[in-house]
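lol forgot to send this yesterday, sorry. struct tokens for the thing we talked abt
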């Protein structure tokens, strides 16, 4: 029996990408499986893009899989016709814990962090965030943050949609990441002139691993960046006690929205060259 061949990279890039909602992936997806479209998806595919019956698009299942899908005669459904191969993801999972900056700047961070390959983003209340710990962030705002991640994933050809966690205190987040083995690298970005550069710290960590097993053993990298004014000494001490390594992003002073992008750029570039 001949197996279906993945469509070419050129054709794959021309097709519209649609991120499936969680309830659409509750059952196992496979070739010839029907997907019940949401009202928003129907409107977008039929009315905005004006796709005809039988037109193809790529469905992203939020779990790293791409499915070649076509619109059915029934406007409420689409049918999976093939599973595609996409290698745009980093081999190591990246988590970003970011102290929330002023205003809506968190949205820019989410968008750019998604493009750089992050797998999870945790908005944090810190000692210097304008929004203090215990403040309820409404579901509407959290849903908007998740949609931004979905849109950025589609545009940057990601196979995964990063999970945007519910905001929590920096202390509580550290409690979720106690000292661990060498398989998880944890960094807190600081402005101390004597701190080791993030790139140098990554290189040192990988050099300490057994030869030929580097990427297999480092399965997660966690980065913490502060808000305007950075971390307090108390927060840095708590992070170090939880196994985080203080690192520098260079000699220049970076804004709260630039620092996460620079940190993730260093990490993703390092992993891409491994």
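and heres what i got for the seq, position by position
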């Amino acid at each position: 029996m001949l197996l279906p061949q993945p469509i070419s990279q050129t054709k794959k890039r021309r097709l519209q990408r649609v991120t499936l909602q969680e309830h659409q992936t509750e059952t196992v997806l496979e070739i010839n499986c029907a997907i019940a479209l949401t009202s928003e998806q129907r409107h977008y595919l039929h009315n905005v893009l004006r796709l005809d019956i039988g037109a193809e698009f790529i469905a992203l299942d939020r779990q790293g899989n791409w499915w070649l899908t076509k619109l059915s005669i029934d406007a409420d459904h689409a049918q999976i016709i093939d599973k595609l191969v996409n290698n745009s993801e980093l081999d190591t999972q990246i988590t970003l814990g970011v102290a929330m900056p002023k205003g809506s700047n968190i949205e820019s961070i989410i968008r750019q962090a998604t493009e750089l390959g992050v797998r999870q983003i945790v908005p944090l209340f810190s000692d210097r965030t304008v929004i203090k710990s215990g403040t309820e962030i409404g579901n509407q705002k959290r849903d908007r943050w998740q949609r931004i991640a979905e849109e950025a994933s589609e545009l940057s050809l990601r196979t995964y949609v990063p999970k945007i966690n519910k905001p929590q205190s920096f202390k509580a987040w550290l409690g979720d990441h106690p000292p661990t083995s060498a398989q998880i690298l944890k960094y807190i970005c600081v402005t101390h002139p004597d701190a080791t550069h993030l790139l140098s710290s990554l290189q040192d960590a990988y050099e300490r691993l057994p030869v030929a097993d580097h990427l297999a053993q480092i399965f997660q990298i966690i980065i913490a960046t502060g808000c305007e004014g950075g971390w307090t000494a108390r927060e840095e001490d708590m992070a170090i006690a939880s196994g985080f390594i203080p690192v520098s992003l260079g000699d220049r002073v970076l804004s709260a929205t630039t620092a996460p992008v620079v940190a993730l750029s260093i990490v993703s570039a390092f992993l891409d060259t491994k």
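Residues 1-13 have pLDDT under 50 and may be disordered. anyway ping me if u want another try
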